[in-house]
Amino acid sequence: MEKDVILKVENISKQYRLGTLGTGTITHDVNRWWHLIRGKEDPYLKIGEINDRSTKGSSEYVWALKDISFEVKKGEILGIIGKNGAGKSTLLKILSKVTGPTTGAIKSKGRIASLLEVGTGFHPEMTGRENIFLNGAILGMTKKEIQSKLDEIISFSGCERYIDTPVKRYSSGMTVRLAFAVAAFLEPDILVVDEVLAVGDAEFQKKAIGKMQDISSTDGRTVLFVSHNMAAVKNLCSRGVVLGNGRTLFSGDIDSAVNFYLKNTKSVKKYKNNKTTKLNYIAEVFISDINGKSILNSLKKKKEYFLNFILDLNKVEGVKFGTTLISEMNEPIISFPFEEEFKKTSKYHLKIKLPTTILKGGSYFVEAALWNAGEVYDKSEEYISFDLLGDSKLEKSGEKIKGIVLNKEEWLTKNI
């Protein structure tokens, strides 16, 4: 391994058997053992399908990861991006030694600290203070070393009032604050962070990203960062790896990696739900022009377009609906609240004008949900997407828009 390379991943693969724990049957275990003692290859490594969560396969074996290779240099912040089910969390669990690879090898120098899920490594019955010492001991630090960092950890987490309270009484936000503070301040050589920062509030996310930049640039430590927030990834990382169906799709500088990911995200121009078993569901989503014609190509700023939803409601009591426009950086831009009541069991056609004049050019995703107080009937993070042609400024009356905008356009509603 080169002198400045702190982590080297060589042809890592991970195979799972679906529907059962372990290999599942004694027949398979004996078969594996029989091949092993004769010096032959595991017979089940020759089978299995790629990890595509959205399709039904014919094999009971699936490759969560397949032949992943990359190197990370000391002081580098590597962004690992990809859609849900791409294999990001599996890769980080292997790097953190939570689970082992089926094939391949990992070479690393120094301690690895992981923040994979809210409360990773925390004992719920122990206090926050006791968990700091427990995590430090797991990382191989002495009590004296942990004690020297204790005040900084507690101050950064913002949980000083509750530090001697059992962690089981913490909210998820408090837990992740303390867990990140422990992982960052106990000086690991490699810090692995998987999406958990999304649980924290905006102030904590900003502090956490600033801290990761500091430990990389000042202390020369390495960070592996997974997030679906492309703005945070671009802001923090210098290099990126894009995963898809368990394989490496792209590796390079972070701008190129993010652009590759966004361009290769599946683009759906029209959504149609063919399932009729749901109590209440979103049947169709599409964009139309002023004449009601469905639009399947790119939108232009100077023309009028409408966002259309066909809802099939079999129970209307307390049903609510809402939709949000998400930018290509995975940030909510405009919310379209629907405040009317659904009067009767029926199919509804809801239509609202898209404010294309204030949007910058680029790709957008439509997120929507149908729910009542106690149940989500139908929800998706991406029903359809569209491309808007135009410049890269997001403006309104000459002022740059910041944060999420509440759309005031009136919904057009009719029964069909």
Provide structural commentary:
- The strands form 5 sheets. Strands 6-7-8-4-9-10 form a 6-stranded mixed beta sheet, sandwiched between helices. Strands 13-19-18-15-16-22 form a 6-stranded mixed beta sheet, with no helix packed on it. It has a 5-stranded antiparallel beta sheet with strand order 11-12-14-17-23, with no helix packed on it.
- The N and C termini lie far apart (about 65 Å).
- With about 425 residues, it is of the alpha/beta class.
- The radius of gyration is 25 Å and the shape is globular.
- The chain contains 8 helices and 23 strands.
- It has 2 domains: about 70-265, P-loop containing nucleotide triphosphate hydrolases (Rossmann fold, 3-Layer(aba) Sandwich), CATH 3.40.50; about 270-415, Coagulation Factor XIII, Chain A, domain 1 (Distorted Sandwich).
- A hairpin with a 2-residue loop joins strand 9 and strand 10.
How are the elements arranged and paired?
Layout: E1 5-17, H1 26-37, E2 49-50, E3 61-73, E4 77-81, H2 88-95, E5 103-108, E6 112-115, H3 128-138, H4 143-157, H5 172-185, E7 190-194, H6 202-217, E8 222-226, H7 230-236, E9 239-244, E10 247-253, H8 254-263, E11 271-272, E12 280-289, E13 299-300, E14 305-313, E15 320-327, E16 332-338, E17 346-353, E18 362-372, E19 375-389, E20 395-396, E21 399-400, E22 405-406, E23 412-415
For the biggest sheet, the summary is:
6 strands, mixed
* Uncertain residue ranges: 51-58, 394-401
End-to-end Cα distance: 66 Å
In CATH, the architecture of the largest domain is 3-Layer(aba) Sandwich
- Give the % helix: 10-25%
Q: Tell me the strand percentage band.
A: 35-45%
Q: If helices are DSSP runs of H or I spanning 4 or more residues, what is the number of helices?
A: 8
